[in-house]
Amino acid sequence: xxxxxxxxxxxxxxxxxxxxxxxxxxxxxxxxxxxxxxxxxxxxxxxxxxxxxxxxxxxxxxxxxxxxxxxxxxxxx
Length: 77
What we know:
Elements: H1 8-11, E1 16-17, H2 19-25, H3 30-38, E2 46-48, E3 51-55, H4 56-64
Antiparallel strand pairs: 1-3, 2-3
Helix pairs in contact: 2-3
């Protein structure tokens, strides 16, 4: 039985994507996705020991913002 006092966002389990899932979502290779993350152009992953995963809701927010760079790079190329 669900707790009626909690909103759905609090009771639904979080959904995570691995690098392959992110690459599929953004129609690029896994290596390209990892380069984007390393360069600060994509959201940083969450780490669970050796597992590296991206929270789907954070990717949705990033998409809604127009996929801006996550951090600015110094000296850029």
